[in-house]
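The data layer described in this paper is built around a simple, fixed record for each protein. We quote a single record here, exactly as it is kept in our systems:
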Amino acid sequence: MAIKYEPLVTESLANQIAETIRQAIVDGDLKVNERLPTEPELAQRFGVSRPTIREALKRLAAQNLIRSRRGPSGGTFVNKPDSLEAQNALINITSLMTTMGEFDLSDIAEARRELELLCVQLATQRRDTSHLETMRQEIEIQKNPALSDQDFCASDVRFHRALVDASGNSMLKFMMAAVIEAVQPVVNLIVFRFWDKQKTITQHEQILVSIEAGDQQGAANAIREQMDDLQERYAKAQALRDGKT
């Protein structure tokens, strides 16, 4: 039987090289649009084979940290970070981890409570009419008695997304994408059996009224009440997940 003698790639070496280059990008030692050394040059500097370098570069490309370009002026270059792509990557991995049960529901509730409290307090000072209108529209949707459980959950997600957007803080919006876009849809469906729709609608109305009035304390109290209810639902769902009920 013929054996194909192809070059072997040592994954650990490729991973170490990819991590070294990644860290150089993060630290700013490699600048955006800077050209990396060629594969032969990298192979010589790291003392490894070209296939190992090629594997390392594939890993970096998969993380969207580098790009390749053909031609006389081509080569491998450091990519400029794309916030939307990074946010989508964060949403996807967080959603997967949530679905797989990597996060305790009580931890999710605790983190969401503190982050949304900060968002709602900022929203009372920074919201504009579009944020208020979006929240108002979602409340009207939630009042529809024919609305399915799944559509109610989706509307709840959109309401809280508008609340986060109203904070006017780009870092909070980026961080909360993992909570609002990834965790909340998954967990909503887990805890929905313990949900009081009408109570949620009333809480949403109070949050909206307080934000519109610039009432920071009222908005904070309203979000605390909703997050307290959420923690109770999470606790019941966690107990059910653990087989305690």
